[in-house]
Amino acid sequence: MGDSSAKKSPGPGGVSSPDLPSGGINIYYNYSNCQINNVGHIENANFGDVRVDHDDTRRGGSDPLKTAAEGQGVSGSELDAILTPITDASYTRNRKISPPDSDCFPGTREDVIQGITDWVDSPVLFNTDTPHVFWTHGYVGCGKSSVSQAVSQRYGGKGRLLGSFFFYRNSGDRSRMVRFAVTLASQMMAAVPATKPFYKAAVEADPTLLTQGTSLSTQMERLVYQPFNAAVKRGLILKTLFQGPFLVVVDGLDECEDKLEVKEFIEHLLDFFKRHPSTPLRFFITSRVERHIEECLNVAGVRLDDLVAHGSDDDILTFLETSFRQRVEKDRVLAAEVQSNGIGQWPTRDDLKTLVHHIGGSFIFASALFKYIVEPSEDGLTPTTRLPLALDMNPGLDGLYTFTLARSQRLHHFSNVISTLALLFQPLSITAITELLGLRTFEVLHILVNLQAIVHIPGTDERPVTFCHTSLRDFLTTESRSGRFFAPPSHHLYLSYRCSLVQDEPESEKAATLYGRGNCGNHFEKFARLPPYLQGSFLETVDALYALILARSQSLVHFFDVLWTVALLFEPLPISGIAQLLGLQASAVSGVLSSLQVIIYISSDTSLVSFRHPSLYDYLTTESRSECFFAPPSFHRHLFYCCLALRDEQQTETAATVYSIVHHTKHFSFFSTGEQEQLAASPSLQTLDAFYTPALSKAQHLPHFSAIISTIASLIVPLSIAGVAELLSIDPSEVVQVLVNIQAIINSPGNNDLPVTMCHKSLRDFLTTESRSGPFFISPSYQLQMSYYCFILKLEHLLNKTQTTSPATQYSVQHCRDHWMKYPYSTSGQSLFLELGQLSHLPNQTLSYHLFSFTRAFFTLNWGDMHRPISQQAFGDFTRCAEFLALALECDPTEAELQDSWLYTSFSVLGMNMHTYGTHRFKVRQEQATALQRIVDRMSTAMRAKCPNLSGVQRPIDNDMFVLDKRIGLWTPMDSYHVRFFVHLPS
Predict the structure, then answer these.
(1) Predicted pLDDT of residue 504
(2) DSSP of 525-549, one letter per residue?
(3) Is the pTM of the predicted complex or chain greater than 0.90?
């Protein structure tokens, strides 16, 4: 309506109107004082007797509604002008131009209509068992509108039809509630003139009733229900007592776009009849079973009827017999042809029964089939020659299918929807199809409504959509028959992709999600088995599918190792063979492959692993297509080392060892010429050590090389490049620089968030065996350093109380103690202090360093037999241990209360644990006790500075021992301070 150009616009009924003046016409839509200029096209609009003086309106002429609102009253003619009903919504509309064009065929639906008639005619007074509302539901095309039309005509002829409204999808206001109330009010005043004064009084009292700002329930109450009840009390009651209640017919309520207003209408309707049970009025409503309607109507006080349950082959037989007989009587050419062929009854009784069987209870399919047989068409066939085709049904109905499908072929998503219906492994509902294809419900319905002659559209969006006859699927999947409507088998690939998209919804029981989980692989298998000439142009879709599936699994440990191995092997291996070749657990390999089962095939007979379609190999080996999933040729080096390792181990013959012997030279061929010459000249070609040493030598000059390689080898669970960098407190680019130079032996993914792994488990054995690795040896004491790295991140997490954590922090929280437990327990206190002092590559005047040193020293010094004599050296170690605690207190930058401090965090949470009970006794010199006391005083000073109200920190000592009387892992640093065990002086 916003087009400002002057156009010829269809008037009521589609008749073109004259050109509009260039200046436009001022129209107040529904008199809500909202000006609209230059109307380009009005659909389903009717201005009735409204006469507007254009010039006067532009000059600010009077508005009847505004006049009433100002208290000046509304005349009868002005009331007629205000009321703007939809005239093509009632049963009297021209059905040829205002669908649905439906009516019951004579002699059919008689039992259905009789049941409705009995309900309408039942008296209201003293009959509380009969509900005022009757809801008939069923699928699209089952005859609901035909029944509504027949009932409306019957009671319109009796003068007892208060109103009728036939909703129709995508038809302007006929598919909305905006003029529903005023339309029914207009029809009511025509049917029962006694209601007009009460309607007029209501509008005069409140002119805003006719505006869009008034709720639907208020409009229905004030404009329809109250005027009708008032007329009944004025004298209409006598007519209803003698003739029966009045009726309102509402057809196709599911085709109304305003779902909230639909619920409001129903809920208010039922509430009205609860308040006024004696009102002589019935409402007959038809619709599909959509959720927002069923929730309101499937309740007590509403009579329900499933029209599909009344489907009768006898009614369809009656329809066909009468239709064919009348056609022969009217068509002289057809009659002559039947007579010349010596045919008695045409079609024969047996032919009609065969057609009824094919039709399967659908009146709309019966009507379409009849028209297909008798109507002229481009194929030049006569009705008598087309009937055998219909009886044969497959492929006899190709013409019918082509004609019907052509009605929707220009709609958006048509090909997608119809191909999906043809290739699904099980029927899906409209809701499920919508979710599967990523469309909106109305887009799917718009297509299906035009196909209702050949497709069963269920009464609810939650029930399956099916074909009227199985021959339609055969038609759609046979290109020589369906032509431009052919559902290509390559569409299975797209369905596999869509299944993969919807199947990830967690814990969802939606039909589309369940279908996706169960059939994603089935659709891909169908595609993979097609001959190449039927697969079509699929690169864009298959690449998207591969990227989606691979991205879902890429965070799995060893994902890239397993994927690239399957891609680059020269012959398939079973899961156990891949695991042995890569030096992994079979469960780890199986976990990766299970997540990729849509695109990777595992033979049930041989367990060999292969790609379901060769396009996956092309995808993974073409970097421009696969990007981060690209299997680099350099990975052949890794496979060569793996083959070599299996040869060296000289195990019993397995699939992996046989593969290594046969194919290691093929992987070797991917080395550069210089690398091949260097390796060939190596005297120890049979061992991997000869490869690891030069590979590591390439990077040993780089910053942080030793820390990076030692950390990767010591990790309990692999971390990403970003995780390794965060753990070591260095920049990720420094990790990348090292890994680039040793990529032959370390798998470094292109994504910084994916785990870094060693190419083979033998590398860890090499690095932790000093006699083999020499300068690259990783000492067991490195575990102390790993524990320190973890402790830094863990303490930061504890102090900051952060909810979200990085993978490196999560690793540190889980494995800080594990690395400490791997540190040799036999280490003496002196050795421990020496190694703690060597943690100098990081700032050592920090809370993390001093607290880590204190907890580790306290743990080590209290490990073992607590009743053994303590040497003077041990007492010195305890003194140094206490000094670490004092230093931690002094450098703690926080000002928080001690209750929130690390002082009250147990040793087990700080990353250590032990089970130790017993006592320690010391005999010390005066100067030793004095030195220790100074440290204790430093602790007290630091504590009081942070918490002035702290009391009871020091307590008098009157014994010569301290007692470790509980599990030290449960102690806190504050507990260890309270012990005050360094006290006994010699006399």
Answers:
(1) 67
(2) HHHHTS-HHHH-S-HHHHHHHHHHH
(3) no
